[in-house]
Write a structure and sequence with these properties.
alpha/beta, about 240 residues, globular, 11 helices, TIM Barrel, about 30% strand
Length: about 240
């Protein structure tokens, strides 16, 4: 199972939100490039970046920072947040980002996903952010009527090879992920499912591994020290 430290970018800083609420922001670093270097130095094999400005507003001021992170480290980076047009997708991947995560656009414009998968293949992932098992969009500000499991199946049918599943109520809470909801998505599809939201302990990681998650994104717990990266990596290795 792959461990992906998270760097959430907002106004050029590395932050974390509680349940996606912009008003509940913790700034962990004003040097996100150095943070990326730190996670690489500690053994991370992949980084997860989120452009929160893009997620909330559909536009971004963080692309230069993303470019600098990509240039500063050797490990691959995936990026989500505000990628809602073919032009923006092309721009993101041209920066050297290894995988682009489509979220709001995937729900509102499935043809964008289908075309992106044809053009870029495994470089495309879809982020399914769910609240009470329903898909949320626009940086989690709006909750649709689309069940997350149904949406995951539809995305697989369009050619998506990686799904990033986040339980919004768990995110930033340091109380563990929603294992039941995550398991349901993993069992529904045959593509890789990366779990996100609330992962706090080695036991969380062992459980995610046992239910078949292909990866785990860890954010707040790494920054608060509740979970150290070396322990997380050890828990994710094959037995």
């Amino acid at each position: 199972m792959l461990i992906l430290p998270a760097i959430d970018l907002r106004n050029g800083k590395c932050v974390n939100l509680v349940q996606g609420r912009a008003e509940e922001e913790t700034i962990f670093s004003d040097q996100p490039i150095e943070m990326a270097r730190r996670w690489e130095a500690e053994g991370a094999e992949y980084l997860h970046l989120v452009d929160l400005d893009g997620a909330f507003h559909g536009a971004t001021a963080n692309l230069q920072i993303v470019r600098e992170i990509v240039d500063a480290i050797r490990i691959p980076v995936q990026l989500g947040g505000g990628i809602r047009t073919p032009e923006r997708l092309d721009q993101i991947l041209a920066l050297g980002v290894a995988r682009a995560i489509l979220g709001t656009a995937a729900l509102k414009n499935p043809s964008l996903v289908e075309g992106a998968c044809r053009k870029y293949g495994e470089k495309i992932a879809v982020g399914i952010d769910a609240k009470d098992e329903l898909v949320a969009t626009e940086g989690w500000l709006n909750v649709s009527h689309k069940p997350a499991i149904e949406f995951a199946r539809e995305m697989q049918n369009l050619g998506v090879l990686t799904i990033v599943y986040t339980d919004i109520k768990s995110d930033g809470m340091l109380k563990g992920p929603n294992m039941e909801a995550t398991r349901a998505v993993v069992e529904e599809v045959e593509v890789g499912v990366i779990a996100s939201g609330g992962i706090t302990s080695v036991e969380d990681l062992k459980t995610l591994k046992s239910i078949g998650a292909s990866g785990a994104i860890i954010g707040r717990a790494l920054y608060t020290g509740d979970l150290d990266l070396q322990s997380a990596l050890a828990a994710a290795r094959p037995c």
